[in-house]
Every structure is written in structure tokens, then in C-alpha cells.
User: Fold MFS transporter from Croceibacterium selenioxidans.
Amino acid sequence: MPFNTRRDSPWLALILLMAINTVGFIDRIVVNVLVEPIKGEFQLSDTQVSLMGTAFTLLNVGVALIIARYAERARRLSLIAAGTLFWSVATAACGWAVSWTQLLLARMGVGLGEAIGLPSNQSVLSDYFPPSKRGLAISILMLAPPIGAFVGFVGGGWIAQEFDWRSTFLIAAIPGLVLALLAWLFVAEPPRGRYDKVVTDEVPPMKAVLHRLFVLPSARNLVIGSSLAAMLGFGLNYFFTSLMMRQFGVGLAEAGLYSGIIASLPAAISVVGSGWLGDKLGAKNPAAYALIPAVCLIVGGPLYVFAITRESLGLLLGLISIATFLNFGYLGITYAALQNLMHPRMRVSTFAVLNVVYGVASALGPFLLGWLSDHMAASFGPAQGLSVAMAITGALYVWAGLHYLLASRHLARDVAAVAEK
Assistant:
């Protein structure tokens, strides 16, 4: 390149990578608002339509591990740009699908592209921001789910109602094509381990990554707790639009609007707020990175159960907003805590392993809730059956919160133990 446009700028990197993460989440979640029209066109059950989540996961989780090991040695920004381009094209292919099988294959393509493009993001930011600022930085990166949910639900619902569900996929593909080019042109590759005490070019073996994730008591419980919360969240979000349409007769665009607002604004405030609070309190007590989500989940789970069973749409939406604020507070702060426990050349691999775990969780959540809804429909009908299934699912947030409590008991000791390794 005769003229170097790439800048070593933490905030430029954060803004562009957050935008890429957001587009990735939109392309992943936009199917949630399209469940009913896709189900109607292809004559599917709740269990069958939930397989779009499984199709996304099939290639995503396996390929991400292979790419991650390569990314520990390679230029991460090149992978990010290439992956973003690939999944955007695959998203467009979803809109061109003329059969259920073709749609599932296209969703697998989206999963493959995200496996290439997303695992390196947190590793890059960990080399742009010191440990004391990673909670906020990674929480801003993790604004992708709430912002992506808003755009996916509201924009996707409106486009699907005004045009059709195929147009939703085609339009959703456009931003990723632009962002792939911007990341390639303007974001510099930061030095590895810039803010870490121990910096080497040697890439630790995969067993060392797995040891830190699943043998360290704090990391193990953070992974289990966040996986449970992710599984529940993906399942509940997948069917929330359908619940409003079945239970209250709300139109597709209106249901998408409500879903988007609830899944975005409360969650965004919670994600950034918990990350900021974690950095503030964690400087003196690292256990805060686990205690904050523990309290949120243990309170938010029962509140969700109460909210989802209300017969007034206004009351349900108001209470679900509060429950969402609580139940999404774990997102950024968990990733920051886990990144702080890792060697600089373990961080892409760590994200990839977590991607496998969370990918399985994201596939299981909609599938299990869809299965439970079908089972409950036999006794309560399709609308009430889905409501009961979602209440049972929401109660399990307490289980996730208990694992964060266990993590808080060991986090300070584990952070100190790995600092010199």
C-alpha cells in the first residue's frame, strides 16, 4: 500500500469493531423476527423453525477453533475483514433461498463467516486497552447484542411487513460489506501483549487455554454461568416476537418494534453500566467482576417469570424491560474478566472456545424452548403454552447467577496467580 491509511487508534478500533460485531449480531438475530413468515411459507413447527439457530452453529463452532489457532500468529484485522465480507454475502444468500434446505445452508454460511471474522475482536481490543480499562472497552464492544437486537427486530420487522422476509436478509447484508472495507483500510494491527507483564511470541498449546478456562475455579464458573444465561437469553429472544403475536394479536412490525426496544435500550445501559462499575470496583476487589452479574441474574430471573405471565401487554412489556436490564448485565463484564485471566496469545483461542460453548448454548436455547412450547401447547394451546414455556426458561437465570457467586469466591486469587505466567 503506497499510502498507509491504518491508524494505531484504540477508539477508532473500538468503534469499527463494535460496528462489525453489531452487524454480525443483526445477521445472526434477524431471523428471530422472521420466524412467523418463514414458518408460514415453509409450513414448519416451532421445533423445525428453531433449526435455523442450529444451522448457524454447525460450522460456526468448529471452524472458529481452527481459525483462532491461526489468528494467534496471523494478522487479526485481515481475518476480521475477510470474515465480515463472507458472512454478509451469506446473509444475502438467505434472501435468495427458494427452499427450506437452501435457507438452512445459507444460515450455515453466515455461521462460517462469523467464525472467521469475530474471534479476534476481543484479542485486538485487549492489545489496545490496559486491563484497568478492558471492562468498559469490551462492554462497549458487547453493545452489539442490544443494538443489533434493536436494528434486527425493528428494522427487520418493518422491512418484512412492508416488503417481505427475503428483502430483510438482502438489506441486512449491505452494512457488513462496507465495514469489511473500512476495517481493512483504517485499523492497524496492535502489538501483541502491549499491556501484559509477560510477552512472548510462543503460542501456548490448546491444553493450556482449556486449563485456564475450565480448571481455574473462577473461569470455570464464569463460563458455566454465562453459558446458561446465553442459552436462556437466545431462547427467550427467539420467541418473544411470536409470543406477542400469538398472545395479544400484535402485528409483525409492531411486535418487532417492542422486541427491539426491550432487547436494546435496557440491555445497552446494563452492559455498559456493569462494565464501568466492574472496572471501578474491580481495581480494589476483582471479585466485583463476578458479583455484579450474580446479583443481576438472581434478581432478574424471578422477575422475568412474573413478567412473562402477565395478561396485560403494557404491564408485560414494562416488567420485561426491567428484567432485561438485569439479565443482560453479565455480557461485557464476563468477557473482560476472562480476557484478564488469559495469556496474550491465548485470547483469540479463548474467544473461539467460548464461541463453541456459547454457540451450542445459542442453538440449544431456541430448540429446547421450541420443544417445550410444542409440549405445553398440547395442554394450554399455542399462545399460553409458549408463555408457560418461557416462564420456566426464565426461572433458570437464578441457576446462572449462582455460578457467578461461586466465581466471585476465587476470582481475586486466580487473577493474581496468572499475572506472572
Q: What stands out?
A: The chain has a mean pLDDT of 87. The two ends are 38 Å apart (CA to CA). The first helix runs from residue 10 to 29.
